[in-house]
Structure formats: C-alpha cells, structure tokens
Write a structure and sequence with these properties.
73% helix, Helix Hairpins, mainly alpha, single chain, 3% strand
C-alpha cells in the first residue's frame, strides 16, 4: 500500500513539475513565467519530497522532508519576486496583455529608487492651501 501512495505522490509531483516546465515555455513574459514555475515547481518538488518521507517511514527522514518542504515553500516565492523585480528594473518588457503596472512612473532608473505613494500625495499644508485657492 505504501508503494502505491508513494507512486501516486511521485506521479503527481512529476506532473506538476512538467506543468511548471510547460509554463516556462508557453507563457509570454518573465513575470508570468516566474508565476507558473514558482507555483507548480514548489508544489511539485514538495510533493516528491513528501513521497520520499512516506516511502521511508522514518522519523528522521520525515523531519528532514518537512524541513525541505518548508524551505521550498518559503524561498521559492521570495526568489521569484526578486528575479521578477530585477527583470523589471533592467527593462525586460511586459506582455502587451498586462493589465496593471503598479511600478510604472514610480521607478527612477538613474538613481535606482522607488518613489512611495506618500511621496506623490500632497502634504496636509499643501492640501489646505489648495482648498483655499
């Protein structure tokens, strides 16, 4: 019975990894590729590691497997965010179907700084002065 559960988890994990690879090939731009590979890849890798824990049925192996799964779940989205952010800042173009670009107009390529939303808003003194005019 354990072999069947292990085989099912390995098959599911490999299908998710295949889905991540297809997403990397088929998606139109960096950000959507990062999204596809991070979600499916982390879940696929985690499922395969759980299969190892189920197969060996040992406390030490299970503890290591859970630590690996936690590490994958915690680091994959952070790494994808940083790679996507770096890609945006070096000027990799977005897909023409992108609906929202929240960084547009906020990033200064010369100083490599982001302007915050508060920096765009007028101060309370400026608001009162504007209201009087």
């Amino acid at each position: 019975m354990i072999e069947w559960i292990t085989a099912l988890l390995l098959l599911l994990g490999s299908l998710l990894m295949l889905l991540a690879a297809l997403g990397a090939l088929r998606m139109p731009d960096l950000l959507t590729r990062m999204h596809a590979t991070t979600k499916a890849g982390a879940l696929g890798g985690g499922t395969m590691v759980v299969a190892v824990a189920v197969f060996f049925d040992d406390g030490a192996v299970t503890a290591r497997a859970l630590a690996i799964v936690a590490f994958i779940i915690l680091t994959a989205p952070v790494a994808a965010h940083l790679i996507g952010r770096a890609g945006y800042f070096v000027g990799i173009p977005l897909w023409e179907g992108t609906l929202k670009d929240e960084l547009k107009g906020r990033y200064d390529p010369e100083t490599h700084t982001l302007a915050s939303e508060e920096a765009k808003r007028p101060t309370p003194t400026e608001e009162r002065k504007h209201d009087r005019d």
